[in-house]
Amino acid sequence: xxxxxxxxxxxxxxxxxxxxxxxxxxxxxxxxxxxDLGLSMTQIMMIQAVLSGSIAIFEFPAGYVSDRIGYGxxxxxxxxxxxxxxxxxxxxxxxxxxxxxxxxxxxGIVFVSGxxxxxxxxxxxxxxxxxxxxxxxxxxxxxxxxxEGAAALSAGVLxxxxxxxxxxxxxxxxxxxxxxxFFLIEPERADKPEGKHLHEIxxxxxxxxxxNHILMWVLALSCLFGLASYYPVWLVQLxxxxxxxxxxxxGPIWAVANFIVAIGAFISPKLAxxxxxPLLWVCCLMVMIGFAGLxxxxxDVGFLFYYFICLxxxxxxxxxxxxxxNLASSRYRSSILSLRSLAIRGTFLLTGPIxxxxxDHQGYQWGFALLGLVFTPLLALLIYIYWHVDKRESA
Length: 395
Hints:
By secondary structure, the protein is mainly alpha-helical. It is built from 17 helices and no strands. The two termini are 36 Å apart.
């Protein structure tokens, strides 16, 4: 791959991430479901669980297809199918039509997950520029969150004009993303899965669980941090509304949240490079403070503590994904990256509806309290194990 082709791939991947994260409906989607369609919190969590379930089912197979057939091909499928999912949302008028939209979106998302970061890494690798991956991954996360924040600023205005308008804008944006996928150039890889499918899948799984202990623990830690930031996304909007925050302010609140994630992503490489800086322990502390504040205060003030969780997300994600990329082989890179999303979505599939029932009966503050009591000790334990395994493997 020529340097010019590499640079174009990198710029396109960041641009595609901006498009993927420019989620105009996300700041108002639970409001739309609850107040416009009349869904309960339990039904909302069931929809998200089904979305997570469809992703969990197809995540690893899609990652394997990406490794075998090509990252660019996988991204074309992903952006095309996800566009169809947003079209379904425009016409959704009841629980089952929303469920269908979620299923289709899940199928599209799995073909993007892992493939975009894999093509970025392999493009740099083909030009002997892996030392730049941390910078580009930081941009990938940071600019994506900036896009989500910018989209959220207009969400309330679009929603107040017509409740389906944010979804229509999303269809147009994803249509542009689908077209951009055709300009990507597939990087050359010396090692690709070419044997029988079942044998190759077994080898990919064995790479994570069959001896590469540090890769397994990094993936586990990345998944747990991801889950800690994923659950609140579906609670915060209604939590703030219950606290008296107006609909017009939801967009700006969501925008600030994403800008904070972006700031964390941009500064993460610098902090991670400082020897002795306990970045993971700081992130664990932010989880504890965030959930404690959300559970202690009502939504009119408590939403400020959600920003601790947002900063945690921005700080840990680039560092841990970079570590996974360095440890994974080119042969199964997209498959291994997909395992992270599979674990997050699969766990949410099993536990999301339970959390929804808990919130419907106990309230949002008790829901956040439960999340804090679960995640804080689990993260502390996993960080402790990870550091000891990493120290042993490095010795």
